[in-house]
Design a protein that fits this description.
This is SGNH hydrolase-type esterase domain-containing protein. With 151 residues, this protein is mainly alpha-helical. 62% of the residues lie in helices and 5% in strands. The chain folds into 2 domains: 2-103, Rossmann fold (3-Layer(aba) Sandwich); 115-151. A two-stranded parallel ribbon has the order 1-2.
């Protein structure tokens, strides 16, 4: 914690107008003690008045990597320490969001209308998806009606 504080103070003294982003630790599964230390460090930084009361320091919380919808194993390489491509992407997204917040830039919402697939592939997929949904719905309706008649 003291070394982190020294880095933040050094940046602040050299560049008076600078904003500093402190990124919290990323998950790791290689060693239980290291993981516990990471969680302790994150907790200390989050609760430290040095960072909470300083308008020039922003803490980038990576807790979505620890407790998010994606399993930790998907975010790590086989060594259980270094981030996978997906983990690196999530970390970059967290830092990008922190930058936008610090600089007062409005975060643009992703247009979900477009995906990585081509328009042609998307058009081919949707009717099939709709048809399978209709078949599932019709099948359940028939069973529901049968159940009511016999019940």
């Amino acid at each position: 914690m003291d070394k982190l504080q020294m880095v933040v103070e050094s940046i602040s003294s050299k560049w008076k107008e600078a904003k500093t982003i402190v990124s919290l630790t990323t998950p790791r599964l290689d060693n239980r003690l290291h993981r516990l230390n990471s969680e302790i460090i994150d907790g200390l930084v989050k609760r430290s008045s040095r960072y909470l009361d300083n308008k020039d320091v922003y803490v980038s919380d990576n807790s979505n990597m620890w407790h998010g919808q994606v399993s930790i194993q998907q975010l790590l390489n086989e060594d259980k320490f270094h981030l996978s491509e997906r983990g690196t992407s999530m970390l970059a997204s967290n830092i990008k969001n922190a930058l936008h917040t610090v600089l007062g830039i409005k975060v643009q919402q992703r247009n979900n209308r477009y995906s990585r697939s081509t328009d042609r592939a998307r058009q081919q997929y949707r009717p099939q998806h709709r048809q399978s949904f209709n078949n599932y719905h019709d099948h359940n309706e028939q069973n529901r009606v049968k159940f009511k008649r016999t019940g």
